[in-house]
Design goal:
- By secondary structure, this protein is an alpha/beta fold.
- The protein is built from four helices and eight strands.
- Strands 1, 2, 3, 4, 5 and 8 form a six-stranded parallel beta sheet that branches. The protein has a two-stranded antiparallel sheet with strand order 6-7.
- α3 links the parallel β4 (85-91) and β5.
Protein backbone atom coordinates (compact mmCIF):
# COMPACT_ATOMS: atom_id res chain seq x y z
CA UNK A 1 0.00 0.00 0.00
CA UNK A 2 1.26 3.47 -0.81
CA UNK A 3 1.70 5.96 1.98
CA UNK A 4 -1.51 7.56 3.27
CA UNK A 5 -1.70 11.19 4.37
CA UNK A 6 -4.12 11.58 7.29
CA UNK A 7 -4.86 15.30 7.63
CA UNK A 8 -6.98 16.53 10.52
CA UNK A 9 -8.06 19.51 12.54
CA UNK A 10 -8.59 20.84 15.08
CA UNK A 11 -5.87 19.41 17.25
CA UNK A 12 -6.07 18.45 20.93
CA UNK A 13 -9.66 17.26 20.86
CA UNK A 14 -11.84 14.44 19.67
CA UNK A 15 -10.81 14.80 16.02
CA UNK A 16 -7.18 14.30 17.00
CA UNK A 17 -8.16 11.38 19.23
CA UNK A 18 -9.98 9.65 16.36
CA UNK A 19 -7.22 10.54 13.87
CA UNK A 20 -4.68 8.83 16.14
CA UNK A 21 -6.97 5.81 16.51
CA UNK A 22 -7.26 5.50 12.73
CA UNK A 23 -3.50 5.99 12.27
CA UNK A 24 -2.81 3.24 14.84
CA UNK A 25 -4.76 0.79 12.67
CA UNK A 26 -3.03 1.65 9.36
CA UNK A 27 0.48 0.92 8.23
CA UNK A 28 2.44 3.51 6.30
CA UNK A 29 0.54 6.65 7.33
CA UNK A 30 1.61 10.24 8.03
CA UNK A 31 -0.50 12.05 10.63
CA UNK A 32 -0.65 15.76 9.78
CA UNK A 33 -2.44 18.76 11.33
CA UNK A 34 -4.00 20.99 8.65
CA UNK A 35 -3.09 23.98 10.78
CA UNK A 36 0.57 23.38 9.97
CA UNK A 37 0.53 22.87 6.18
CA UNK A 38 -0.23 24.36 2.79
CA UNK A 39 -2.64 22.69 0.33
CA UNK A 40 0.20 21.45 -1.87
CA UNK A 41 1.06 18.98 0.93
CA UNK A 42 -1.77 16.82 -0.46
CA UNK A 43 0.08 16.41 -3.72
CA UNK A 44 2.64 13.97 -2.30
CA UNK A 45 -0.08 11.42 -1.40
CA UNK A 46 -2.28 9.33 -3.69
CA UNK A 47 -4.42 8.26 -0.72
CA UNK A 48 -5.71 10.85 1.71
CA UNK A 49 -7.90 10.75 4.81
CA UNK A 50 -9.36 14.01 6.11
CA UNK A 51 -10.77 14.53 9.62
CA UNK A 52 -12.98 17.45 10.61
CA UNK A 53 -15.43 18.40 13.36
CA UNK A 54 -18.68 20.31 13.32
CA UNK A 55 -18.39 22.92 16.04
CA UNK A 56 -21.47 23.66 18.08
CA UNK A 57 -22.63 27.07 19.27
CA UNK A 58 -21.41 26.28 22.79
CA UNK A 59 -17.83 26.34 21.44
CA UNK A 60 -18.18 29.59 19.50
CA UNK A 61 -17.08 32.93 20.86
CA UNK A 62 -16.34 36.36 19.51
CA UNK A 63 -12.62 35.55 19.96
CA UNK A 64 -12.85 32.42 17.82
CA UNK A 65 -11.12 32.94 14.47
CA UNK A 66 -12.63 29.73 13.13
CA UNK A 67 -11.31 26.24 13.39
CA UNK A 68 -8.26 24.92 11.58
CA UNK A 69 -10.30 23.87 8.53
CA UNK A 70 -11.95 27.30 8.23
CA UNK A 71 -8.48 28.76 7.83
CA UNK A 72 -7.22 25.96 5.56
CA UNK A 73 -10.11 25.44 3.10
CA UNK A 74 -9.53 28.66 1.14
CA UNK A 75 -6.04 27.33 0.35
CA UNK A 76 -7.68 24.44 -1.53
CA UNK A 77 -9.35 26.71 -4.09
CA UNK A 78 -8.14 25.66 -7.52
CA UNK A 79 -5.94 22.79 -6.34
CA UNK A 80 -5.97 19.80 -8.71
CA UNK A 81 -6.16 16.43 -6.96
CA UNK A 82 -7.32 14.31 -9.89
CA UNK A 83 -6.25 10.69 -9.51
CA UNK A 84 -6.16 10.87 -5.71
CA UNK A 85 -8.53 9.00 -3.40
CA UNK A 86 -9.91 10.89 -0.42
CA UNK A 87 -11.89 9.51 2.52
CA UNK A 88 -13.42 11.82 5.13
CA UNK A 89 -14.37 11.29 8.75
CA UNK A 90 -16.33 13.87 10.69
CA UNK A 91 -17.18 14.40 14.32
CA UNK A 92 -20.50 15.74 15.49
CA UNK A 93 -23.03 15.66 18.30
CA UNK A 94 -26.22 13.87 17.31
CA UNK A 95 -28.08 14.96 20.49
CA UNK A 96 -27.47 18.71 20.84
CA UNK A 97 -27.04 19.25 17.09
CA UNK A 98 -29.37 16.68 15.53
CA UNK A 99 -30.33 19.20 12.83
CA UNK A 100 -26.68 19.83 11.85
CA UNK A 101 -25.09 16.42 12.48
CA UNK A 102 -21.58 16.30 10.96
CA UNK A 103 -22.44 19.16 8.59
CA UNK A 104 -18.77 20.17 8.32
CA UNK A 105 -18.01 16.77 6.79
CA UNK A 106 -20.55 17.56 4.08
CA UNK A 107 -19.01 20.98 3.50
CA UNK A 108 -15.53 19.46 3.25
CA UNK A 109 -16.89 16.88 0.78
CA UNK A 110 -18.11 19.71 -1.48
CA UNK A 111 -14.62 21.24 -1.50
CA UNK A 112 -13.04 17.85 -2.23
CA UNK A 113 -15.37 17.32 -5.20
CA UNK A 114 -14.09 20.54 -6.77
CA UNK A 115 -10.50 19.27 -6.62
CA UNK A 116 -11.26 16.36 -8.95
CA UNK A 117 -10.28 13.74 -6.35
CA UNK A 118 -12.26 10.52 -6.03
CA UNK A 119 -14.25 10.41 -2.80
CA UNK A 120 -14.38 7.00 -1.10
CA UNK A 121 -15.69 5.65 2.21
CA UNK A 122 -19.40 6.50 2.07
CA UNK A 123 -21.36 5.04 4.99
CA UNK A 124 -24.99 4.02 5.49
CA UNK A 125 -26.93 5.96 8.10
CA UNK A 126 -28.09 2.71 9.69
CA UNK A 127 -27.46 2.92 13.44
CA UNK A 128 -27.26 6.73 13.49
CA UNK A 129 -29.89 9.00 15.02
CA UNK A 130 -30.11 12.56 13.72
CA UNK A 131 -32.61 14.87 12.04
CA UNK A 132 -30.63 16.54 9.24
CA UNK A 133 -27.11 16.45 7.89
CA UNK A 134 -25.35 18.16 4.98
CA UNK A 135 -23.10 15.10 4.98
CA UNK A 136 -25.95 12.78 3.96
CA UNK A 137 -25.94 12.74 0.16
CA UNK A 138 -27.64 10.31 -2.22
CA UNK A 139 -28.70 7.94 0.55
CA UNK A 140 -25.38 7.72 2.39
CA UNK A 141 -23.04 9.75 4.55
CA UNK A 142 -20.15 11.10 2.45
CA UNK A 143 -17.73 9.68 5.00
CA UNK A 144 -17.58 8.25 8.51
CA UNK A 145 -19.68 10.10 11.13
CA UNK A 146 -18.40 9.85 14.71
CA UNK A 147 -20.07 11.14 17.89
CA UNK A 148 -17.47 11.08 20.65
CA UNK A 149 -19.77 13.04 22.98
CA UNK A 150 -22.58 10.51 23.22
CA UNK A 151 -21.50 7.39 21.32
CA UNK A 152 -17.80 7.03 22.08
CA UNK A 153 -18.40 3.36 22.85
CA UNK A 154 -19.20 2.85 19.13
CA UNK A 155 -16.18 4.70 17.73
CA UNK A 156 -13.67 1.88 17.45
CA UNK A 157 -16.12 -0.52 15.78
CA UNK A 158 -17.25 2.20 13.36
CA UNK A 159 -13.63 2.99 12.51
CA UNK A 160 -12.83 -0.69 11.98
CA UNK A 161 -15.83 -1.15 9.67
CA UNK A 162 -14.92 2.00 7.72
CA UNK A 163 -11.32 0.93 7.28
CA UNK A 164 -12.57 -2.32 5.74
CA UNK A 165 -14.28 -0.14 3.12
CA UNK A 166 -11.50 2.35 2.35
CA UNK A 167 -8.24 0.42 2.71
CA UNK A 168 -8.85 -2.01 -0.17
CA UNK A 169 -9.36 1.06 -2.41
CA UNK A 170 -6.12 2.65 -1.18
CA UNK A 171 -3.66 0.30 -2.84
Amino acid sequence: MTKIGLFYGPQEGNVEKVAKLIASKIENVDLIRVKEIEADAFKKYDNIILGISTLGKHTWSSDNEGNDWDQFLPKMNGIDLKGKKIAIFGLGDHIAYADFFVDAMGELFEVVKKTGATSIGQVSDEGYEYNESRAFVDGKFVGLPIDEDFEDDLTEQRVDNWLKIILPEMK
